[in-house]
UniProtKB/TrEMBL annotation:
Listed name of the protein: RNA helicase
Organism: Rattus norvegicus (Rat)
Subcellular localization: Nucleus
Extent of motif Q motif: 24-52
SMART domains: DEXDc, HELICc
Chain segments carrying region Disordered: 1-22, 388-431
GO biological process, one term: ribosome biogenesis
């Protein structure tokens, strides 16, 4: 800004800067025309804050550590400069994106493909739980971008002839803190040390680490009534899409069975399911064929399912940071959403830690306790069936060791589902 145009007051200067940010386009950031068109086609009218901060630096070739709230477009912030650079100097095995979970790897690949469809970008997803042979073939074709979880990538680096990352120009670690906490720490840190040079930190965060449009509540209840309160809430908020987080695979499976027995369209996603079932569950939920996704923390990071209205922390997260990621599955990209955290007599300290981390005191989610108690009988019957199903399922699995992933969905349990009298409670008028 030239000296004679200097604004009269610092406030004015800030306003001008803010206004400039408001009106910035992808083109202003240095993104090439065909990619600007791709953004347009995805309905990205203007870049988000982290994209405004990170894209120009990335285009200059700087190394970046990017921090921004959930659902704020971090994927685009790294995908656009990579595609831009790829267009300038086309090359095979150009970029590697590491992610902590398989589902996230597929999602990131879809984002690259959506942005890069008109330029013919080729991606390969290299994750566990899937046939290794077909992945070796995909790698032999030398894609432009590899999106991988660390374990399977290391497998291929060690065992797939002719595959290496020597030509690599870009390395991204999405959810880097999580990746660096995984068991592959040494391998991944080696990669990172080799890669990061004088990184710039792009931190875009407001006062709160959770997003503004997220309404957060807690519910203080005795542990033994958790299931009943869950059913009550699902009835109260009927018509919404829910992600419900549980602490273990077993409880995720059990709760899914319980809800199905009560007639809810619930589906599980956890690490003891085969990869095809995991993706099947996720896709049914994404396609709105199921309204409730029950998941462990395998689904707490990065997943972008815009229609999620409510996140329920059925089991409180033990790591406060997971709270922020879990509740960030709703209220994404400027939408609104709700989060409800169950706090039992055992969870008070963990809950206080969460409130401390987000710097907020949460309000109580209002409930009519007499109405909740009216549900207890039907819920306990459904619990009984769920336990039976879980046991049968466990025995079946023992018998079928050779195909452990075959039956880990709850869909097979439909037979029992309608045995619980009445099924799903009727929605009350006016709600
Ligand atoms: N410039 C933009 N304008 C509008 N929508 C955008 C823009 N950039 C990205 N989005 C959309 O915002 C949503 C969230 O983006 P993304 O998944 O990249 O968020 P994130 O910051 O990585 O979140 P998380 O921390 O949960 O991983 C996606 O549906 C994406 O398509
Ligand atoms: Mg992300």
């Amino acid at each position: 800004m030239a000296a004679d145009e200097e604004p009269d007051s610092p406030t004015e200067a800030l306003q001008t800067a803010a206004e400039e940010e408001e009106t910035k386009t992808f083109k202003d950031l240095g993104v090439t025309d065909v990619l600007c068109e791709a953004c347009d086609q995805l309905g990205w009218a203007k870049p988000t804050k982290i994209q405004i901060e990170a894209i120009p630096l990335a285009l200059q070739g700087r190394d970046i550590i990017g921090l921004a709230e959930t659902g704020s477009g971090k994927t685009g912030a790294f995908a656009l400069p990579i595609l831009n650079a790829l267009l300038e100097t086309p090359q095979r095995l150009f970029a590697l994106v590491l992610t902590p979970t398989r589902e996230l790897a597929f999602q990131i690949s879809e984002q690259f493909e959506a942005l890069g469809s008109s330029i013919g970008v080729q991606c390969a997803v290299i994750v566990g739980g899937i046939d290794s042979m077909s992945q070796s073939l995909a790698l032999a074709k030398k894609p432009h971008i590899v999106i991988a979880t660390p374990g399977r990538l290391i497998d291929h680096l060690e065992n797939t002839k002719g595959f290496n990352l020597r030509a690599l120009k870009y390395l991204v670690m999405d959810e880097a803190d999580r990746i660096l906490n995984m068991d592959f720490e040494t391998e991944v840190q080696k990669l990172q040390r080799a890669a990061l040079k004088n990184p710039v930190k792009c931190a875009v965060s407001s006062k709160y680490q959770t997003v503004e449009k997220l309404q957060q509540y807690y519910l203080f209840i005795p542990s033994k009534f958790k299931d009943t309160y869950l059913v009550y809430i699902l009835n109260e908020l009927a018509g919404n899409s829910f992600m419900i987080f549980c602490s273990t695979c077993n409880n995720t499976q059990r709760t899914a069975l319980l809800l199905r027995n009560l007639g809810f369209t619930a589906i599980p996603l956890h690490g003891q399911m085969s990869q095809s079932k995991r993706l099947g569950s996720l896709n049914k939920f994404k396609a709105k064929a199921r309204s409730i996704l029950l998941a462990t923390d395998v689904a707490s990071r990065g997943l972008d399912i815009p229609h999620v209205d409510v996140v329920v922390n059925f089991d409180i997260p033990t790591h406060s940071k997971d709270y922020i990621h879990r509740v960030g599955r709703t209220a994404r990209a400027g939408r609104s959403g709700k989060a409800i955290t169950f706090v039992t007599q055992y969870d008070v300290e963990l809950f206080q830690r969460i409130e401390h981390l987000i710097g907020k005191k949460l309000p109580v989610f209002p409930t009519q306790d007499e109405e909740v108690m009216m549900l207890t009988e039907r819920v306990s019957e459904a619990q009984r069936f769920a336990r039976m199903e879980l046991r049968e399922h466990g025995e079946k699995k023992k018998r079928k060791r050779e195909d452990p992933g075959d039956d880990d969905d709850t869909e097979g349990a439909i037979g029992v589902r309608n045995k619980v009298a009445g099924g799903k409670m009727k929605k009350r008028k006016g709600r």
